[in-house]
Amino acid sequence: MSRAAGGECRKEAGGWEAEDGQCDSGIESLRSLPGGRDAAAAAGIPLAAAESPAEPGSAAEERLDSTYSSGALPEALPEALPEPAASRSEEPPQGLSRQQLEALTYVSEDGDTLVHLAIIHCVPAVALCCIAQLPREVLEIQNDLFQTPLHLAVYLEQPSVIEALIHKGVNLGLQDRNGNTPLHLACEQQRLQCAQQLLQGTAPAEGTEQPHGHHQDLQLQNWQGLACLHISTLKGNIPMMSLLLESGANIDVREGTSGKTPLHLAVECHNRRAVQFLLRNGAYVDAQMYNGCTPLHLAVGRKDAAIATILSHSGADTLLRNMENETAQDLADGNNDVSLQGGRPVALQE
Fold first, then answer.
1. In the predicted structure, residue 23 carries a pLDDT above the cut 90
2. Where in the sequence is the domain holding 3, given as residue range(s)?
3. Cα end-to-end span (Å), the chain
4. I need a surface site. Which of 50, 142, 202, 227 has the fewest CB within 10 A?
């Protein structure tokens, strides 16, 4: 993916592939708002940030996608903005003219607000200006891929924008089309600072009311059945795992497809360090999946003598049976890599 010309902080991200001949609406399209530069100024958006000088030939270059995993890019902003969705008879909020309201509440055909677009194009000055002017409900708008501005700010690692959105009291638990909350994305992209902000930002700022239920559910699963601790374990990110546990994550939470706990996942990944970390922090060594397999079943089945030894020293039961009536001892029979000598203790040969 090529780098976009309109901002030095734009990043390459996996999955940001555009279809031929398409380009997104972009910050430059602020000029297409009614009144051009005047409209942007009326909305309180700094012109220097909204309309930076373009490099020669930059107009023909590709821009970043409007979303982090989308192939559909929004077209240029129309010359005539649609009227705001609010009742035309209502007066604009105090302090805002109707022209400012129309500019700030614009939504593209892909569902992106100006806040989405400012974040996508890494123009935090514009994003922060819009956040300061807009109510929480507008800041929680999800685009066509169900991404809120907070999702994008986490994905593109923009801490100042994340902080402003959290202080405005936005819902931290909204899920995108893959079921990921912003915290899921922080774990997936291994953004430890972003995760710290999200976990420290559950209390509203002074003078800001946060709706009941707008808290961080650390056991919430995405559409793959993964909670944040599952994702961090699969990534082998010990600092992120530690942060989640300190924030109240359930160390034995089961993923939704087969009932694996983080300990099962660490064993499957042959991650000895993660296995030891989870056991030291109280993970249940004999937790069973939906099919009855324990972490020791998985270690023996994968011929991982080192991890089987760790589990054994932590008191793993070699005689627990899975749904196929097999014990870890049964799986070890005829296995030249791992040998279990009759129940406890476990003797292993590498």
1. no
2. 1-84+94-171
3. 45
4. 202
